Amino acid sequence: MHFLAAIILSVNFLTSHPITGQANMSVLVQNLNTGEVIDSYRAEHVVPPASVMKLLTTGAALEILGPGYRIPTVLEYSGHIENGVLHGDLYIRGGCDPSLGWQGKTAFLTQWIKAVRAAGISSIDGAVIADMTMLDGEAQNPGWLCEDAGNYYAPGIFALNYYGNTMNIVLKSGEPGSVATVMGTEPKVEDVYFINHVRCDKITYDGAFVSGLPYSRERYLTGAVPSNLGTFGVKGDLPNPGLLLARHFTARLKEAGISVKRDAGYLADYNPLMPARNELYIHYSEPLSEIIRETNVNSNNLYAESLFRLLGTRYTLPGTIHNSQDLLKDYWRRRGVNIQNAIIKDGCGLAPQDAVSAKTFVQLLTIMSQSKNSGEWLASLPVSGQTGTLKSLCPSTFLEGRIHAKSGTIAGTKNFAGYIDMPNGDTWVFAILINSAPGKAKNIQTVIQQYLLDVCSSHK
Q1: What is the pLDDT of residue 354?
Q2: pLDDT value at residue 128
Q3: C-alpha distance across the termini of the chain, in Å
Q4: Rounded to whole angstroms, how far apart are CA atoms 395 and 61?
Q5: Composition of the chain by helix, strand, coil, percent to 5
Q6: Strands (DSSP E) along 175-263, which ranges?
Q7: Which long-range contacts (CB under 8 A, 24 or more apart) does 411-414 make?
Q8: Is residue 193 predicted with pLDDT exceeding 70?
Q9: CB-CB neighbours of 327 under 10 Å
């Protein structure tokens, strides 16, 4: 009797709380060892998962490609090499690696230069060309909001990604009421053009926004920043990361004494009439297990979306967003996950049309716990009170360090899905998806945390 009363109290806490009581909600808590349902509320009801969507993407990538898979980027050349001169072009053929130049790390270019030298090339009669034709030209997911396009967390996704597809726009603020001055970008982007309406105001926070579309040289800056702050940075997306990589590689080649006759260029669309090429060198990413860890622990949208697009290329080339959507849904359906009612628009959860149920996530998490890749999978999830996006969940409580889960956050939304290591030795699998709740996401998390502490303490 005490056991049942505790469960009813837990459910009632969520459904009657002023913050979560009227929210769009789907909840399922289940014992992973026995299959017993601990708690359930509208478990099959689909709701926007936000970044919990990344579990669908990273789980499929880990199972299909394997934890040791490394994403290739291939250096190729057209034409022929004669007396040290490449009579043709040098191509960088992208494979959807999100980590090239991540956090400004470009040491790999030194190895690329060594490979060019090893091929006997001391001069290039053509250009360095970024080949991004593994994917179609739809670099911006049509399911994303216009207000997100151009921001660092919603960059265009290309077969060649570089520098996190992010630039830091350096602004200088002045007197209240004035317009901030654009000082430049880091890294330097030669041909980007800013329409700047960022106001300097008596505020204490950064309220500047960046808008723009892939391949477009134009970026629109709006909002407000603190006055008299000096110089500071606002992050936005790179319009054409592949072209920037080709330019950087061209500059590095010249610094190394290898002349390049023409300016760097790029290919965005596949052309069957392109001349034949010869492979020169293959650069491999870090293992997929590390890419997935970055994706889940830090909720990296670029990494998630790159994996999403990479998976779509298994259906056809060039890869399309539609192919990626189909593959993700078909894969999990074949694995026995109840996903037929889910709506999948992207791989990272940024699309507001995404909709998945708590039951779907619990089934996926159960399957992954039984996988041969379960160790790498668990290691990719942040830990409550300790790492990544779960650092603020249940710190200094008996659940600190016991929850391995993915979180998802947007306005009025806070979601979690993962595992709980119970003090009695059992493992629970759970999904708590709460959308359209009043107030800030951190307040919703406070309610969820109290719920977790309540339901878990009743079973200690």
Answers
A1: 98
A2: 98
A3: 16
A4: 31
A5: 30, 30, 40
A6: 181-186, 193-196, 199-201, 207-211, 218-226, 230-237, 259-260
A7: 411/441, 412/23, 412/436, 412/437, 412/438, 412/439, 412/441, 412/444, 413/48, 413/50, 413/437, 413/441, 413/444, 414/441, 414/444, 414/445, 414/448
A8: yes
A9: 20
Q: What is the pLDDT of residue 1?
A: 30
Cα atoms found within 13 Å of the Cα of residue 250, Cβ hemisphere only: 23
Output phi, psi for 209, to 5 deg: -130, 150
Give the other-Cβ count within 10 Å of 35's Cβ.
Answer: 9
pTM recorded for the entire structure: 0.95
Tokens of 319: 């890869």
Cα–Cα distance measured from residue 377 to residue 385, given in angstroms and rounded to the nearest whole number: 19
Q: Is 24 helix (H, G, I), strand (E, B) or coil?
A: strand
Complete domains list, the chain, with CATH = 2-68+289-457 (3.40.710.10), 72-137+241-286 (3.50.80.20), 163-237 (no CATH)
Taking the C-alpha atoms of residue 129 and residue 86, their distance in angstroms, rounded to an integer, is 14
Cis peptide before 438 (omega within 30 of 0): no
| Long-range contacts of the stretch 379-387 (C-beta < 8 A, 24+) | 379/289, 379/293, 380/58, 380/62, 380/289, 380/292, 380/293, 380/295, 380/296, 380/297, 381/296, 381/297, 381/405, 381/406, 381/418, 381/419, 382/296, 382/297, 382/406, 382/407, 387/297
Q: What are phi and psi of 91, to 5 degrees?
A: -110, 145
DSSP 362: H
pLDDT at 98 over 80: yes
How does pLDDT run across 274-293, given as a tens digit for each residue? 889 999 999 999 999 999 99
Exposed, middle or buried, 426 (CB in 10 Å: 0-12/13-18/19+)? Answer: middle
Q: Residue 41 burial by CB count (10 A; 0-12/13-18/19+): exposed, middle or buried?
A: middle
Sort 233 into a burial class: Cβ within 10 Å, 0-12 / 13-18 / 19+.
middle
CA–CA separation, 78 vs 345, rounded Å? 37
Beta-strand runs (E) in 60-143: 72-78, 80-82, 85-87, 90-93, 123-124, 128-131
- Specify the 3-state DSSP secondary structure of 325: helix
**Nearest CA among 145, 37, 44 for reference residue 355:** 44
